[in-house]
Design a protein that fits this description.
Elements: H1 2-14, E1 17-22, E2 26-32, E3 37-44, E4 48-54, E5 66-71, E6 74-83, E7 93-100, E8 105-112, E9 118-125, E10 128-135
Antiparallel strand pairs: 1-2, 2-3, 3-4, 4-5, 5-6, 6-7, 7-8, 8-9, 9-10
């Protein structure tokens, strides 16, 4: 855990940089482009996991900010679609979360307030759609 904290701290202190950590079992490479784009690769004997993120700017619901992870036959990604204007989800941030696996794919759409205390989740998986609302 300490090594992850050091890697992340190094990224924030140095801006555009690449940090590589290696031990006998795996290699972790963290690359920060200095423009909000970060790539993390974790390699071991069996597989490589790649995580990519684009944090956008300082908006709480920045359209186009994204994150993805790929490993073997599985992938997960999310993208901020942006603030909704009009309709049922007016004023809420819309985030699309996609999961693809060897057996099944699923999409989850989140619509939530800036404080995260209320929102909606719409899950599409296995030919079914489930809508859930939350309030804290």
């Amino acid at each position: 855990m300490k090594i992850w904290i050091l890697l992340i701290l190094a990224l924030f202190l140095t801006g555009c940089t690449t940090v590589v950590y290696e031990n006998a079992d795996k290699q972790v490479k963290v690359e920060d482009q200095g423009n909000g784009e970060v790539t993390i690769e974790v390699e071991d004997e069996d597989e490589t996991i790649v995580i990519e993120a684009n944090k956008g700017i300082d908006s709480w619901c920045e359209t186009g900010a994204e994150w993805s992870m790929m490993a073997s036959d599985d992938s997960v990604s999310w993208e901020i679609i942006g603030l909704q204007n009009g309709g049922e989800f007016d004023g809420l941030c819309h985030v699309l979360y996609k999961m693809k696996g060897a057996g099944e794919d699923a999409n989850i759409e989140y619509y939530f307030t800036k404080d995260g205390k209320s929102g909606y989740m719409i899950i599409e998986a296995g030919g079914q759609t489930i809508k859930q609302e939350w309030h804290k």
